[in-house]
Structure to design on (184 residues):
């Protein structure tokens, strides 16, 4: 069995954030990932996988926009030492997740930019919940894909060709065009 660890970066996913959060223990999160790792879907590049886990105890912050919604935004760093990024959100509350995809980066991907926090085979960098019963993982948000592809501060290289990037960006924009994250 591969070893899996939780990164400091994923700790930003709290009830007060605009990201999926959970009420299960760290040990249970890792156990669910390890138990379901054989069901992993490939991520945006080699060494990145998305593992579906049982959604009980997870809360999604993704909602569909309604005509007239007004959102808020901020320009903040995701972690100390990283350049700020634009971030938009809608004021609202989390809902129980219908599906959860845990994003794992392999050790060799994380060491490319010295972002590994240990020697585990994989590290959890994001937990993405959806209120719906998705059978496949949603594409990453356009802003994240762009930051990764162009290796902006904090972005991990996609290693995509221009045509692969354009196709991935199209899928991302079409999925996220009417969705946003909520924050209390």
């Amino acid at each position: 069995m591969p070893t899996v660890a939780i990164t400091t970066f994923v700790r930003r996913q709290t009830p007060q954030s605009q990201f999926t959060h959970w009420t299960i223990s760290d040990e249970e999160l890792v156990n669910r990932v390890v138990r379901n790792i054989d069901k992993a879907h490939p991520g945006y590049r080699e060494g990145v996988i998305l593992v579906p886990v049982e959604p009980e105890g997870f809360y999604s912050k993704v909602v569909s926009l309604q005509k007239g919604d007004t959102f808020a935004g901020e320009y903040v760093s995701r972690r100390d030492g990283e350049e700020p990024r634009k971030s938009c959100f809608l004021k609202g509350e989390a809902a129980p997740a219908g599906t959860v995809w845990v994003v794992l980066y392999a050790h060799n991907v994380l060491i490319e930019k010295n972002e590994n926090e240990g020697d585990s085979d994989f590290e959890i960098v994001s937990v993405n919940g959806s209120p719906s019963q998705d059978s496949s993982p949603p594409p990453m948000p356009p802003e994240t894909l762009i930051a990764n592809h162009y290796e902006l501060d904090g972005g991990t290289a996609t290693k995509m060709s221009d045509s692969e990037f354009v196709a991935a960006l199209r899928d991302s924009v079409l999925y996220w065009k009417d969705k946003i994250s909520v924050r209390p």
